[in-house]
Amino acid sequence: DNIYKLNYENIHMFLNAMYTLDADEVDYTKCLTMIFSESEQPLCKYVCANMDEAVSAVLVGTDGTIRDNNACILDVLNSDKVSDENKLLYMERLSTKIDNIEEILDVQYRVEAIKTGKAECTVENIISYYDIEKLSDILISFINESSAELDFSSYEFKSATVKNAFFKECVATSKLNDEKYRQMVSSLKIKF
C-alpha cells in the first residue's frame, strides 16, 4: 500500500529522488511523460492506478503548458480512470500536437482535438474528422489556419465513394482559402 498523497509536490520529489535525474533535467511540463518513461518505478505504477488524481495534480502544479509526448497524451485521453473534466482541461493546456487522432478512442476527444487545434494538420487527421463531422466549419477553420502542405495524392481512402464525396464538398465550399483549396483539389486528382 502507498501511504503518500499524489500531489504535485510529491511527484516532484519522486522524480528528483527516484528517476536518476538532476533537478535541472526535470521538465515539469512533461511530468507524466517522465513518469511513464520508467514503467517499473513505483511512482509510475501508482500514477497508473490513480490516473485522475495524477492528472489533477499536474493540472494544479503546472504553469499552464503541458508538453507530454503523444504516447502519454493517448494514455490520458484513452483512460477510463480520468474524468471527462480533467481530460478536457489537460487537452486545453497541451502545447504538443496530437499526431494521429484515430488513436483517440472516444470520438468526443477526436473532435475536440481538431476543434481546439491540438491535432497536427495532416491528411489523416483531416479525413478522420471528416468521417465524423464531414467538411464542417470547424474542419475548414482547422485546415485554413494550418501552414501544413496538404497532399492527398498518396492517401488511401476507405472507398472511392468517400474520396468522391470529400472532393465534391471541397469543390462546393467557398470557405477554404485559395491556397488550401488548390492543394487539396489538385492532390485529390479527380476529374469532373
How does this structure look, described?
The protein has 192 residues and is an all-alpha fold. The chain is 55% helix and 0% strand. Helix 10 runs antiparallel to helix 11. The longest helix has 13 residues. The N and C termini lie far apart (67 Å).
Could you give a quick summary of the protein structure above?
With 192 residues, the protein is an all-alpha fold. The chain is 55% helix and 0% strand.
List key phrases describing it.
192 residues, mainly alpha, 0% strand
Residue runs with pLDDT of under 50 for 5 or more positions: none
Helix content: 55-70%
SS summary, helix count: 11
Order of helices and strands: HHHHHHHHHHH
Silhouette: elongated
Which structural category do the helix and sheet elements fall into? mainly alpha
Strand portion, in percent?
A: under 5%
- Could you report the average pLDDT, rounded to the nearest whole number? 91
Span of the ends, CA to CA: 67 Å
Question: What is the tally of beta strands?
Answer: 0
Largest sheet: none
**How big is the Rg?**
20 Å
Secondary structure layout plus pairing:
Elements: H1 8-18, H2 31-36, H3 42-49, H4 51-61, H5 70-77, H6 84-93, H7 107-115, H8 123-133, H9 137-144, H10 160-172, H11 178-188
Helix pairs in contact: 4-6, 7-8, 10-11
